TrEMBL record:
InterPro entries, per database record: F420H2_quin_Rdtase, Split_barrel_FMN-bd
Protein name per the record: Peptidase
GO molecular function: oxidoreductase activity
Lineage: superkingdom: Bacteria
Length: 126
């Protein structure tokens, strides 16, 4: 198992449950709500999310093959909580990080442009 896969598993089991109560209220700690493709169960996953002009961007630090990304793609969207506001999002699309960074506002554009993450998820606010 690769290091990034082990880190993702650790975060899912240890870090995420610790940060879920404060996620959605603090910068860099947001919540994406999605419905499982097979289970139909609603999940809440803490992610680092950033505003764009028409929605939000999420850097895919662990790559695009995460279950929560696949769930959003399968259902066409979900809900996010960002800075204490909850709203629906649609049209999930994976793009190169450079494209997503251009949609971000300052100072995130400069900071995340050099993050070394290959892809990002863009979601449109419904």
């Amino acid at each position: 198992m690769q290091f990034s896969e082990r880190r993702a598993r650790f975060n899912r089991r240890v870090t995420n449950p610790l940060f879920l109560p404060i996620s959605g209220w603090l910068p860099l700690w947001s919540i994406i709500e999605h419905v499982g493709r097979r289970s139909g169960k609603t999940y809440r996953t803490p992610v680092s999310m950033f505003r764009t002009d028409d929605g939000v961007a999420v850097l895919l630090v662990y790559g695009p093959n995460r279950d929560w990304v696949k769930n959003l793609q399968a259902t066409g969207g979900g809900r996010v909580t960002l800075y204490g506001k909850t709203f629906d999002v649609t049209d999930p699309r994976i793009v190169p990080t450079g494209e997503a960074v251009r949609a971000l506002k300052t100072p995130w554009r400069q900071l995340l442009g050099s993050a070394g993450v290959e892809s990002a998820l863009l979601l449109t606010r419904a």
